[in-house]
Amino acid sequence: MKTTLRKWAEEDANQLAAALNNKKILDNLRDGLPFPYTVEDAKEYIKAMQDSQADNTFAYAITDEGRVIGSIGVFRKDNIHFRTAELGYYIAEPDWGQGHGTRAVKQICELVFETTDIIRIFAEPFARNLGSCRILEKAGFQLEGLLRKNAIKNGQTEDMKLYALVRE
Question: How far apart are CA 161 and CA 78, in angstroms?
Fold first, then answer.
């Protein structure tokens, strides 16, 4: 088992669609992703990531021995937060609980801190998403607070947690 990150390629669309066409995953992500998630949706996402500004968007396929098993990205903020970035990720359900998420988060944070001027990376998982919270903690993120009633997801008011990793 080897977790690696690599840039998205158009030929990843089928595997991306298969992984993301899962309500359990979508229920833990922000709104805006269609369900069902099609190969065409995947192609549009891959194209958008390929065309994004290199210093602001760091988006990668998470792979295990060449097989796409998830997605991870760090997205630079703007204005007074221009040296801060938000982290987002997911792992395909068949690959949950195998350490891929923790390894991918560590890899992308190292990459961003080593190659950019970003000094802070944060993530805001739903408080109920214990797996994602654990990934962040194992990757060295610090819990900074509970964001009470911070979002509406699937018609439900949700608490979120704020985690951050700061370049030392």
Answer: 22
Name the pTM for this structure: 0.94
For residue 92 the two structure tokens come to 């395909």
Which CATH superfamily includes the segment(s) 3-122? Answer: Gcn5-related N-acetyltransferase (GNAT) (3.40.630.30)
Between the CA of residue 127 and those of 50, 54, 92, 115, 155, what are the distances in Å? 31, 31, 20, 31, 16
Task: Encode the chain (168 residues) as per-residue pLDDT tens digits.
Answer: 799 999 999 999 999 999 998 999 989 888 888 889 999 999 999 999 998 888 899 999 999 998 999 999 999 999 999 999 999 999 999 999 999 999 999 999 999 999 999 999 999 999 999 999 999 999 999 999 999 999 999 999 999 999 999 998
- Calculate the alpha carbon distances from 112 to 7, 35, 58, 106 in Å: 14, 31, 8, 10
Instruction: Kindly give the residue spans of alpha helices, DSSP state H, lying in the chain.
Output: 13-20, 23-26, 39-51, 100-115, 130-138
- Max Cα–Cα distance, the chain, nearest Å: 42
